[in-house]
Automatic annotation (TrEMBL):
Family: Belongs to the NrdR family.
Cofactor note: Binds 1 zinc ion.
Function: Negatively regulates transcription of bacterial ribonucleotide reductase nrd genes and operons by binding to NrdR-boxes.
Organism annotation: Paraoerskovia marina
Protein name per the record: Transcriptional repressor NrdR
Gene field: nrdR
Region of interest (Disordered), ranges: 1-28
Cofactor or coenzyme needed: Zn(2+)
Length: 159
């Protein structure tokens, strides 16, 4: 990091602060040559690699945009969508990679969306997992029903 005043190639960190949401770090630096201070900001970048090979920066807005269509007419509000996008980002970041395939982003959406709204989940899954026939829908619905049955068992055993 060059000093922006004298172009000295060295700088010393005098203070580091993590942003409120934890996604970036702001550092206060001092140049040992001219003694002037400046700030830098570091963000852990997360790139999404599209099928075409083009990479773009991960954005929660894009997650929300993609899921909103599947949620049309469902009892899902903007807060639900924002929370879902946050869960997806946390899941992806916890994997620790700087790049993720667009398809894997879609898959990371499935879990939280399934918890949020099952109809929206089926719509979204049909696109992202490439459902080709009624069998695919049937299998997904069967899996949802099995979860319901397990939940019912768990509920009745605690009574
Ligand atoms: Zn300097």
């Amino acid at each position: 990091m060059h000093c922006p005043f004298c172009r000295n190639p060295d700088s010393r960190v005098v203070d580091s602060r993590t942003s409120e949401d934890g996604s970036s770090i702001r550092r206060r630096r001092q140049c040992p040559a001219c003694q002037r201070r400046f700030s830098t900001s570091e963000t852990a970048s997360l790139s999404v690699v599209k099928r075409s090979g083009v990479t773009e920066t991960f954005s929660r807005d894009k997650i929300v945009g993609g899921v909103r269509k599947a949620c049309q007419g469902r009892p899902v509000d903007e807060d639900d969508l924002a929370l879902l996008a946050q869960q997806v980002e946390e899941a992806i970041r916890s994997a620790g990679t700087a790049e993720i395939d667009a398809g894997d982003v879609g898959l990371a959406i499935l879990g939280p969306l399934r918890d949020l709204d099952e109809v929206a989940y089926l719509r979204f899954a049909s696109v992202y997992r490439g459902f080709e026939s009624l069998d695919d829908f049937e299998a997904a619905i069967r899996s949802l029903r099995e979860d319901h049955a397990e939940q019912a068992d768990a509920d009745s055993s605690t009574q």
